[in-house]
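@channel sequence for tomorrow's demo:
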Amino acid sequence: MNKIIIHLDMNSYYATLEQQAYPNLRGKPIGVAGKGKGERTVIAGASIEAKKLGVKGAMSSWEALKICPSLIIIPANYERYSFVSKRIFNMLERFSPKVEIFSIDEAFIELPATIGWDGAEKIAKQMKQLISKQIGEWVTCSIGISYGKTLAKLASELQKPDGLVVIKPENFRAIAKITRIEELCGIGWRIGPRLNQIGVRTIAELGDIPKQILTTIFGEFTGSWLHRIGNGVDDNIIRSFHGLDREKSVGHSYTVPRDLTNIGDTLRVALLLSERIGVRLRRKELIGKTISVYIHFNDRTIWAESKIQPSYICDGLAIYEAAKRIIDNIPYPKPIRLVGISISNLVSQEQITQPLFTIEQKKIKLTNSVDKINERYGEFTVFRSSLAKIKQRIFNLPDGRNKRLFVPNATPFMKRLT
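structure tokens (generated this afternoon):
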């Protein structure tokens, strides 16, 4: 063994960040609303209290409220979640330069084996303390420690919330005997039932199945992996590091509660989404060149198209104009359920030396000034006159403050801008 792997998994990440921000929500069952509105709203994250009552992520709001009538549903703030994630990942680099981001609330950290199991546990406890101190006392994480990524992730799943579990070669078999195979990352709804059919329920039972049987059923690659992991052989190592990763795209999408039936409303959605993308790009000091639009129709068909732009852009209006040219090519009119826009082929602003004429320089200064005003007084305090045709509504936040909502005249649907 030449390495030790830590898997850090934030507990009920979206919900606990909201409870940290709004103390009046602490100890209560809350659901963070994802895409959609009304009955179509999907629960993007549930608090620890809500999970204990049966609420799960990806549930529809009506289903969650049926299970837990006292559930408090609040709007998601993805920019906050992303911002805090980056802070956490940067903190982890204090302990090791080898940090791999697995998702917005999970990461793997590689430590040298010379640290030893006791040293790794000490570091894990320091990580917990640092997160509590820097992010908030209500925000917790579960940490798994092992000699490979798969087993480290398994260890973090075994004790939630706020857990710390170590799987070593010497205790693997004991843990494997009492752990169901479905707990392993990589064994999903297809592999799990097929293993159950041949009498495999636990990880230890998986290790007892001859390799030849597994490769015959699942193929050489998957069968060999199942045989190795069932016997505690975890050669899944960290391959990419946080410091070397670069964001590949920035985008926004919205599922409407009422289907869009005219191009005007669709373009209003596109304009608002484009403005949001522009703000995010400028905050990250990024510019992009490829604009993608994806449309979900109400008959469940999907249409998508991408176009490379002649120059790099980060301005919301430029993104919108590029998206509009794509939307104009929608081959046939159908009621629209979801509109999505993204920009990719991203680079840092400082990497590009494309010429800036006086008018372009003024535009950049203007958008930066608008960003600062909106950051201080609330998003879309200042906005383009094009959006003046869109009605505004007020959304009440948990702490009693208000946020401005935009709603197109013809169809009251637009995304809350929080």
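heads up for whoever presents: The first strand starts at residue 3 and ends at 10.
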